[in-house]
Amino acid sequence: MPSNIPKYYKNKGVTAAQWHDWRWQLANNINTAQELCQVANLPKSEAKKLMAIFAKLAEPGLDAVRLTPFLISLIDWKNPTDPIRLQHIPDEAEFKPDRYTINKVWEQPNDFADGANRFIQQKYPDIILLRLASTCNAFCRFCFEKERTLRRSVRTAIGPIQFKKALDAINSKPNVRQILISGGDPMIIPDQLLFHYLGQIVKIPHISTIRLNTRALLHNPFRIDEKFVNTLAKIQTDSWKIKGRERGVSIEIGVHFNHPQELSAEALNAIRQLRRAGIGVYNQTVLLKGINDNVEILADLYRCLRQENVTLHYLSHAMPVPGTDHLRTSITAGQIIMRQLRRKKEFRGQLPYFETSHYTGKQIIPDDFNDNFKLFKAKNGPEIHFLSDITGKIEILPDVN
Ligand code: SF4
């Protein structure tokens, strides 16, 4: 799928082969204001503001910002509210005090099924979250995994010893059906290693589904090439013949699109390659203020995804991550949008669940408040009190106005 190479890169002599190579995109990611301003050809006044923001964010040894050249090429720089820009380019609003934030990943010591190894997290009896990477193709400002991906304060780079321990732990839990590989982006892992991991997991007889959550289709869609798709499909079909397994393993790719503008020709090509090879594709969207908190934008996104046979999985309430208050809606705003979407008959029986993450696990949000899901006006602002279907207790989630 040939795509246009932006002028900046053409002038630098970047070839079409380089531009379409996911490794080139990764190796040439942009993390300085100077380079970003040049690529985007920003006017001086805007460049000055951006440089000041980058300077405030700077911390030794850390990339405060990371963007692939491809991602930058999707932004309309003339539009200050471009949805891809708002999700990836830091803003002055990040420095405003937050009403409520978590300053670490919402993890409980008991979540870790592999003890001190801490690579597999289990909040539900039948699903294990396995982390194979600690970074991503590009960084999203609202990321709930910011501490791992962007701030690198939580260790997540798995090695052979940790992977073996993780496999042992999964093997010892016959109730586990699904392995969710997520946050950082597993698609950042080279083919050989990623396929080695998958090849080991499919051998576990009680695993029925492996889900890989990725934002590569937005950030670096060239990652999904013919070799990748064919090998993934082969691992899936070979699982039908594994000795000791009664049935095969379904391999699914969890994509993350928040706005229809993100569905580039390259992203659609990647989805179509996966679907053609029999790989399931599902989408998760995060509800973000000023980006997609609008029924028509979400309806357009969902319509486009369904046209491509992508299952709509979750609409996620944005988590209270430090520096993201300006991007968060209230729970009530999300409920209103869900009710509006439900009135559109074309989505009957197809809409995603609206959910919120919580340190106890994901909680489905009903369309209206009820006895088990109430809104309270607490001293420090609104709070949601809900009966958790995981702990069976009333749990609290601070909300925004
Ligand atoms: S791709 Fe996912 S894990 Fe990575 S920064 Fe974006 S939201 Fe976070």
Automatic annotation (TrEMBL):
SUPFAM superfamilies xref list: Radical SAM enzymes
Gene3D superfamilies: 6.10.140.1170, Aldolase class I (3.20.20.70)
Cofactor: pyridoxal 5'-phosphate
Source organism superkingdom: Bacteria
Annotated Radical SAM core domain residues: 122-348
InterPro entries membership: Aldolase_TIM, Lys_aminomutase/Glu_NH3_mut, rSAM, rSAM_sf
Any GO molecular function: 4 iron, 4 sulfur cluster binding
Pfam families: Radical_SAM
Key words of the record: 4Fe-4S, Iron, Iron-sulfur, Metal-binding, Pyridoxal phosphate, S-adenosyl-L-methionine
PANTHER family, alphabetized: L-LYSINE 2,3-AMINOMUTASE AQ_1632-RELATED (PTHR30538:SF0), LYSINE 2,3-AMINOMUTASE-RELATED (PTHR30538)
Designated name of the protein: Radical SAM core domain-containing protein
Source organism of this protein record: Candidatus Magasanikbacteria bacterium RIFOXYD2_FULL_41_14
